[in-house]
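Hey, quick one: can you model this chain's 3D structure?
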Amino acid sequence: MTMDIGSVLQQMAVLFIILILGYLLNRLKALPPETNRVLSKILLTICMPATILGSVIGKEISMSTSTVLLFAGLTLLTYILYFVVVWPIPPLLKADRENLGVYRFMGIFGNVGFMGFAITEAVFRGAAGFHVTIVNIVYMFINFTIGIIMLTGGKGKLDPKLFLNAPLISGIVAVLLFIIRPPIPTVVGDTVSMLSKLTAPLGMLIIGSSLATMPLRDVFNDWRVYVLLAFKLLILPALVFVLLKLLRTDPFLIGVSVLMAGMPVATNITVLSTIYGGNEKLGSKSVFISTLLSAGTIPLLVYLFL
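Sure thing. Here's the predicted structure for all 306 residues.
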């Protein structure tokens, strides 16, 4: 399959430039560490819900309901695979108990939002837009329920109110909008679209600011991160390919699923860690390193499996 490698690298370069800007702003005291929590709440309660709703509002959806349900089911199946493969790895690597959830999170959840849309656009020339939307809706339901449990690490009594969060609620609304397909006022659609565009840059600013709070040498010194990223970026996509091939899945759906499996670590690992008490520095370094490595692994996945 032909891939516009220039577009892929350009999208990654944009992410890194914004991340570096967040790093510099922190170093210059223009974005002090205490602002990370405030920005994270804005991202979680406003920007991420807008991104989820924007994946449905104003989009021409030509897929049949049966195809949507089929691909949603396949996506859920791939997440089950991620959990089965990744869950036992951190204990085997002798990771600290309090960081088990963060390591598992980085191995399971990828940047299927901003990076997912950008990469599939470069590879499939816009033909997979709504497929990525389906992946994101499934991802949001899992990420903002089980993902939060993972990051809390069993600290104290789990508050059920954690799951009454804006991204999860907006995911439910997005599903209802797809089923009912009501007319949406243009002003509402434009507002949602504008807010959704803040998600990726704000997330990268937060990550850059978080990285600035640790010595640069500490960003690359955790060997466990590299083991988890080998699974995240290479092994899991290969396993997804084999699984869906065995199920005689349509090649196009296999291609989208393999690419989604190979996305770098989800940027919201830092945001959710900041809010729910996970190790945000560990999460930030995993995003930085995985995004850097994916410049080589994503083209490799396309070459091998698509």
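One thing worth noting: The mean pLDDT is 86.
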